[in-house]
Amino acid sequence: MSIPNHILDQLNSQADLISIIGRHTTLKRAGSEFKGCCPFHGEKSPSFYVNPQKNIYHCFGCSVGGNAISFLRDYENLTFIEAVNELAKQTGIDVPKEEPQNVSYQRAKAKPKAKPQTKPKAAIKPAATRQQSANNQSEIDKQPSINAPAYNDYHSYDDYPPLDAYDSAPYATDGYDTHYQSNSTYQGDVNYQDVNSYPPTWLPEDDNTTTAIYDNSASDKDGNLYELLEQIQQFYQHNLTIHPHAKHYFLSRGITEDTFATFGLGYAPFGWQHLEHQFPQDIEGLKALGLVRQSESGRDYDLLRDRVIFPIRDNQGRTIGFGGRALDDEVKPKYINSSDSPVFHKQHVLYGYYESRQQRADNWLVVEGYMDVIALYQAGIYGAVASMGTAINESQISRLLTLNPTLTLSFDGDNAGQKAAWRTLEVALPVLGDDKELRFLTLPNNHDPDTFIKTQGSDAMREQIAAAMPLSQYIFAYLSERYDLTLAEGKAKLMSQVRALTAALPKGSSFRYLLNNDIYQKLGGRRSQNKDARDALLDFDGEMTISQQLQLCFLFQPRALIDDPIESIWQQAGITNLQLPDHIKQKASADILRPLAWEDLQDNALLDIVNTIKRCLNYLPKDANAAAHFILSNVKPTTQETLSRDWGAFYKALTARNVLSLDGLVEELVSQLLERHMKKMIKNPDYVKATIVKMQSQRLSDWLREQHAERSAQMATMKS
Predict the structure, then answer these.
(1) How far is CA 376 from the centre of its chain?
(2) C or N: which end of the chain has fewer Cβ atoms within 10 Å?
């Protein structure tokens, strides 16, 4: 199968190379790169470097180097196709299964060029509102009566008023309503040339020059979409220099001409078919890019008209699409992006990523729009990116977190902006390891980065970024506005949503436990009871067994045996629903899947405590200390002697810490006992029993691994 080069480029540039290589060797940040011992030849002193900006690796010891595909192929022994498919899964980029799309298209033969004609200027008429001219671009598909005019450039700008005059003057209408005729000449601020003039006046009439755009000698050769996009970008960029009203839009927004060049900003002029007239041999390519479309009446028209243009670049800096913004805020839609094409896939592109990478950006900031990216860049704040009208996805967030473990999200403070921030939060959780951090920036007074920098300056913007809200605070602030926290029901709903969020965090995440506990305390809950009980147990002899710890817990909280802890764990771990292979099921006894019983653990002292409590539950005093002595008076002398020695100190430690519940600690201790017991049972010579216990043990281990976050967090804060 032949895979287009542009697909391979996208796979290599979007792959999380740090994570791929990090599975085989430890990588540590070294400036803008990552360094580690080479996984190919083995070494004690690191000489293997990974550059996340270029997404390549190189070893200065053995000279091996390459990209994501070559690493999977050479180190993980995958075939080329297997490596490509693996990266496709990781990045979400579709690899063509059938006839692959490529970046080539058939160019048409050049048409004879008519000589330019110039019509005299017409009188300037009062301008109408722009809303009349571009009420909704999508409506043109429904206008079969339109005879679309050819694109013609402005003839002269000698009489154009100074730029500051535009602040008070209305924009002119383009006049493209249902009564527009193809032989009419636009009369607004400035005249168009005759509709038959060709080529546009900004192009020199010298044939040798025009062949740079219309290469007649290459008319029989295939065109290249990347080359065509570059020419279109230059065309739009040139139009910005000769259309003052478009240039004024950027200047009025505080954008400098140096920034025009950096981002290749441009302007798509009036006219339904200016691209077709500018690139007559490349109609097929224009349609493949979605820049020329066809109406229901069968007429071709340009997607972007009378809009300032933002070229969209890939990670290599190639133009792959365009965003267009209406010059009048009343025009809907305000922004239009060129559609997906063989070279442009919106869900894999971040606007501004290439430009920030060129500046070796270290801190990354996700913003909402093109102008935010440009304003931050111009202010010297590099690392701002924006998605292409769709929500940023998991692989993009993972990539940014690889470049820097802290990622800041800056969305508008209105309802739509905060919903977008929340959706991004949900997308980011699965890749938010304990070493990663998500922060949220909502600027004051409904500012976005563009307007904030304009009014407050770049230093104030840097201060705002540095003070961005941590994820834990943002979640509580966001949810507390949506639930009535004066009611127990509101608090319960908030905690329910928090638990659902934290469940999406990576397995083994300590942040899961810490976030749940932090918000629980914000709602007025006590600090972790399980942690306090663990602290109390540390006051005892370090040689105390798990069984002895559990016996003391049962003495302190005998109600923990009302619902048998073993049966509860069996159900939570899903062992009761274990599906046995048919050949094992046929040979197994009927009760083989029953939960373990306390008798099975073969621990006499523990069994004595459990049985005694179960017998006495209905007769125990309400006071915990009195209930414990009642239980001790009914157990065997040997059990009584062992527990009486430690009970007083244990009870004193728990009451001093105001511990009221040991549910979490009891579950933890019982789980450990079960795990140890099942490991012994796997050695059973009975093949059937050993197989079943092994399956049960695996199911229990999987469940315990999911609880690892709580355990890790508790141990990490045990001595706080």
Answers:
(1) 21
(2) C
